[in-house]
Amino acid sequence: MRKHQYFFLVFLLVFLLPACAAQNTERPEPASSAVSGAASSEASAVTVSPGADSSGAESQKPPAGESSQNPPPVSRAAQKLPAAPSSRSSSSLSIASSLPPMAAPAKPMPPVTAKMPQASGGSVFAQNGAEIDYSNAAEGYIMVRYSGSATIKVLVYFNGGSSYYQYNISGDGAYVTLPLQSGSGSYRVRFMENVSGNSYAELCSTVLNADVSGSGYPLYPNQFVNYTRSSAAVAKAKSLCAGSASNAQKVAAIYRFITGNIKYDYAKAKSVTAGYLPNVDSTLSSKKGICFDYSALMAAMCRSQGIPTRLVIGNTGAGYHAWNEVYLGGWKRYDSTFAAAGQSAGYYTAEKYY
């Protein structure tokens, strides 16, 4: 009995062991190594090639009728996985839009109309043929006139002082503009009549109060800086300053013109007499003059362009002299007479302003 059992066990081993070995040699294709197209949907018998290496690469037998030269299936290692999208940064960046370059030159200043004094008739003193219109004293000037045959001088005092400004007035009845150089305060105006030689007696006088505002007299013509809107000097200044973008540019253009075109008149300097008054249009046309003419012309041209300008008379290292002070954020001295000659007058001591 035991002998039959032994043979039965041997028989089972002979038949069952090859079947188990055949089952172990069949490995299912991994799901991740899918073959594209219809081949992936068909069942295929897969066998281990005798020459297969230990890397686990598998070969698939080509269907009947197809060439064995077809490329082998792509291994899992050779397959490209889809690229993962990059993660977005959580921080924000401020990006400003840049404007195109737009730098522009300064625009020329608008045209200026020269200021002219007026005898408005609102406030007037009149006596013995003499008249003072101080209606516009707040602008820094008064207007006086005299009708008669006497030789008249007008003296102007400030705040009760003993010093005065002196002006010669004709008897033709025409208004003459006089500056109130000292600004706001009390002014005494005296008409003095010549009685003999250098002796004068008071014809009449009055005291007036002025509350000067703004730039005052340096913007208006007066007896020493005399011009009108139709003056050639005003027209020339307008032409010179047409493209200027600032008062500084205007002053530079005027100063450059005067120093480059007006020559000193040495003959006139020897013959000039007391009481001489400049004529700005004559200086412009003749292109020559003394220091009084230089400074009057520059003052007229600058004032007509709305630039406060003083005519200053005083002592210098070169003698009794006239020059200008121009307001450009502060008072600045200009001496066109000596600049035209490429020289300097040395020191300057102002005495009178007009």
From TrEMBL:
<dbReference type="InterPro" id="IPR038765">
    <property type="entry name" value="Papain-like_cys_pep_sf"/>
</dbReference>
<dbReference type="Pfam" id="PF01841">
    <property type="entry name" value="Transglut_core"/>
</dbReference>
<feature type="domain" description="Transglutaminase-like">
    <location>
        <begin position="283"/>
        <end position="338"/>
    </location>
</feature>
<keyword id="KW-0732">Signal</keyword>
<feature type="region of interest" description="Disordered">
    <location>
        <begin position="29"/>
        <end position="115"/>
    </location>
</feature>
<feature type="compositionally biased region" description="Low complexity">
    <location>
        <begin position="31"/>
        <end position="49"/>
    </location>
</feature>
<feature type="signal peptide">
    <location>
        <begin position="1"/>
        <end position="21"/>
    </location>
</feature>
<feature type="compositionally biased region" description="Low complexity">
    <location>
        <begin position="80"/>
        <end position="115"/>
    </location>
</feature>
<protein>
    <submittedName>
        <fullName>Transglutaminase-like domain-containing protein</fullName>
    </submittedName>
</protein>
<dbReference type="InterPro" id="IPR002931">
    <property type="entry name" value="Transglutaminase-like"/>
</dbReference>
